[in-house]
Amino acid sequence: MEKQFKVFVYKEGEPPVFHDGPCKSIYSMEGNFIYKLDVDTKFQTKDPQKAHVFYLPFSVAKMVRFVYSRDSRDFSPIRRTVVDYINLVAQKYPYWNRSHGADHFMLACHDWGPEASFSLPYLEKNSIRALCNANTSERFNPVKDVSIPEINLITDKLTGLMGGPSASRRQILAFFAGGVHGPIRPVLLEHWEDKDEDIKVHKYLPRGVNYYDMMRNSKYCICPSGYEVASPRIVEALYNGCVPVLISKSYVAPFSDVLQWKSFSVTVSVDDIPKLKEILMNISTRQYIRMQRRVLQVRRHFEFNSPPKRYDVFHMILHSVWLRRLNVRITDDHGVVAN
């Protein structure tokens, strides 16, 4: 991929909605990916004839801020923005119409990323959608779409966000602390909040207790979905050497076509939340140590680096897009064939 893959970034559009995005928030992948790809000289090509894929450089998070009318629940301004932009590039270049969008991709970490993609049928059905909200019940298709991690960056560096002791020095069985939203977290809190010394579940952390210290002293970090399926706790767990416990519905884990999540995480159904301690206690020490070591091995694929480094999250996203582009063949008569 590194020697061949080329991306053409459409230059049309003005910040803040285009060629811009948040870099220090829960939606940080939108801005950081746009900026890194805009200045990238290895993967980006200025010649569209040499491109394998075409990137639509809009930020859904910025659309929500600058285009959407707050609290209206009216998505039409966002959809019109997407439609207008794709019509613009389709009129200026032949590539969208040539492939019906199949060799184009968008990236969104905002919860409304899928909603923005519903603006045009071809964008949803044909284009590659790199989404944090990788929810199959909301028409996420893992065959052509890319699940990307939700990373809550506070600064542009990972200083202080990574670390933790070895598996044998972690004294807490499992840990969760977070706000109550969505259908899953109230169930978790009902069964486990302040009810077990081994399962540390809190709505609010006690005064003086550090969130990351709790993760670093825990064997397992509970990562329940909120209103949407993605959770930044998954990446936070990996950064701190804690085995993630995924509790969600219809969620496709990031980069799951490459990474074997069963080897470094635990999946618990919502119905099995009352059995959470039993499930974790039944994992042998030997098996846990293997999973924890694999956490340390795979977390480089979730690291944000500036500039990007091989195998980090920027490269993993592009690799996932590349894999899906290989499934599409553009015919001479401008038809699209899925291999």
Number of strands: 12
Separate helix tally: 12
Round the Cα radius of gyration to an integer and report it: 21 Å
- Average pLDDT works out at 94
What is the H/E string?
EHEHHHEHHEEEHEHEHEEHHHEE
Largest sheet: number of strands, sense, barrel closure: 5 strands, parallel
Shape annotation: globular
Spatial strand order of the main sheet: 1-2-3-4-5
> Residue ranges: pLDDT <50 for 5 or more in a row?
none
Helix content: 25-40%
The percent range for strand residues is 5-15%
SS-based structural class? alpha/beta
- Count of the domains: 2
Q: How far is the first residue's CA from the last residue's CA?
A: 18 Å
List the helices and strands and how they pair.
Blueprint: E1 7-9, H1 28-39, E2 53-55, H2 60-66, H3 76-92, H4 95-99, E3 104-108, H5 113-117, H6 121-125, E4 128-131, E5 146-147, E6 172-177, H7 185-192, E7 199-202, H8 211-216, E8 218-224, H9 233-239, E9 243-247, E10 266-267, H10 276-281, H11 285-298, H12 313-325, E11 328-330, E12 336-338
Parallel strand pairs: 1-2, 2-3, 3-4, 4-5, 6-7, 6-8, 8-9, 9-10
Antiparallel strand pairs: 11-12
Give a summary of the structure in a few sentences:
By secondary structure, the chain is of the alpha/beta class. It folds into 2 domains: 7-154 and 305-338; 167-302, Rossmann fold (3-Layer(aba) Sandwich).
